[in-house]
């Protein structure tokens, strides 16, 4: 689930970028799915289903085999399958790796494999959107349009992706293929660069900061100041979570929150433009998890 730090951010940071991206895409979480006891309708309980979940994916895109494994042991499927961890329902709209970081934090060496409970009935429709592969694909593409708009003021780089490029994006997420994703990512960035014209940096960094599954902030964060000095992750956190990070020197220091990007503790001095370019998710957003916040 967890890997070592991405490495020092210094003059070699740009050279470290491709390595950081590949490491992020290699990330998988060993998981064990069990069918909820109240959903078992056969005399014999089903065996657990073991799988490695890609951190870059969304649950509906990788759950087809899990569902097929448990269906013979449960009631006729009258509602979408849904998943819990430790009695906490999992919101599939959040990438799997981000869910893991929020729900498990840095206790991965204790809890792995990640034990998840599958439900085949009593779908909590008042709390969850109905999951499906097509809904997840639409979610990713719509978020990609939004992230492009934040970067350059236009959604065209995402809207003009060919059917083949969109298929590569879907396959990259389902198979954890960084090479396929890189082709699409570079095509999107060429479109963003074209829209920006003479500007050297994006207009804003698409960033989402989560402190819980239902607690998150998203605001446009500029990558650099008027002089061209790159803003660091600390600046983004002060902008998005001022109560926690933007404290005066006279205030007593709070307990230090844990900040994770792609499951890795990241120095707050890391330039956010570098982080976004090399550590964003397939939807074009940089996801930051802040743990240990009341």
From TrEMBL:
Domain Autophagy protein ATG5 UblB as annotated: residue spans: 205-290
Domain of life: Eukaryota
Signal sequence, start to end: none
GO biological process: autophagy of mitochondrion; cellular response to nitrogen starvation; piecemeal microautophagy of the nucleus
Compartments where located: Preautophagosomal structure membrane
Protein name: Autophagy protein 5
Quaternary data: Conjugated with ATG12.
Chief localization: membrane
GO MF term list: Atg8-family ligase activity
Keywords from the named record: Autophagy, Isopeptide bond, Membrane, Ubl conjugation
InterPro entries registered for this protein in UniProt: Atg5 (IPR007239), ATG5_HBR (IPR048940), Atg5_HR (IPR042526), ATG5_UblA (IPR048939), Atg5_UblA_dom_sf (IPR042527), ATG5_UblB (IPR048318)
The Autophagy protein ATG5 UblA domain, residue ranges: 25-120
Cellular compartments per GO CC: Atg12-Atg5-Atg16 complex; autophagosome; mitochondria-associated endoplasmic reticulum membrane contact site; phagophore; phagophore assembly site membrane
Pfam families listed in its UniProt record: ATG5_HBR, ATG5_UblA, ATG5_UblB
Entry membrane topology: Peripheral membrane protein
Family statement: Belongs to the ATG5 family.
Function as written in the Swiss-Prot or TrEMBL entry: Involved in autophagic vesicle formation.
Autophagy protein ATG5 alpha-helical bundle region domain ranges (all copies): 135-187
């Amino acid at each position: 689930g967890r890997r070592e730090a991405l490495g020092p951010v210094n003059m070699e940071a740009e050279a470290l970028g491709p390595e950081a991206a590949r490491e992020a895409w290699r990330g998988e979480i060993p998981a064990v799915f069990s069918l909820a006891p109240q959903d078992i309708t056969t005399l014999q309980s089903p065996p657990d289903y073991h799988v490695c979940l890609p951190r870059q994916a969304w649950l509906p895109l990788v759950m087809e085999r899990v569902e097929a494994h448990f269906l013979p042991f449960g009631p006729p499927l009258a509602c979408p399958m849904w998943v819990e961890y430790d009695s906490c329902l999992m919101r599939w709209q959040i990438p799997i790796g981000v869910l893991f970081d929020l729900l498990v934090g840095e206790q991965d060496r204790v809890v792995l494999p990640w034990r998840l409970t599958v439900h085949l009935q009593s779908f909590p429709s008042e709390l969850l959107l109905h999951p499906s592969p097509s809904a997840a694909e639409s979610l990713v593409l719509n978020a990609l349009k939004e992230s492009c708009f934040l970067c350059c003021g236009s959604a065209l780089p995402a809207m003009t992706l060919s059917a083949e490029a969109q298929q590569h994006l879907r396959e990259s997420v389902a198979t954890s293929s960084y090479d396929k994703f890189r082709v699409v990512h570079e095509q999107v960035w060429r479109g963003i660069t074209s829209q920006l014209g003479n500007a050297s940096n994006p207009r804003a960094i698409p960033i989402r900061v989560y402190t819980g599954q239902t607690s998150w902030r998203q605001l446009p964060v500029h990558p650099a100041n008027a002089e061209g000095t790159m803003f660091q992750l600390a600046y983004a956190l002060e902008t998005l979570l001022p109560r926690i990070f933007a404290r005066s020197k006279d205030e007593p220091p709070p307990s230090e929150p844990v900040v994770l990007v792609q499951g890795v503790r990241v120095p707050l001095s890391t330039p956010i433009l570098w982080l976004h370019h090399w550590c964003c998710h397939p939807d074009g957003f940089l996801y930051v998890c802040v743990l240990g916040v009341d």
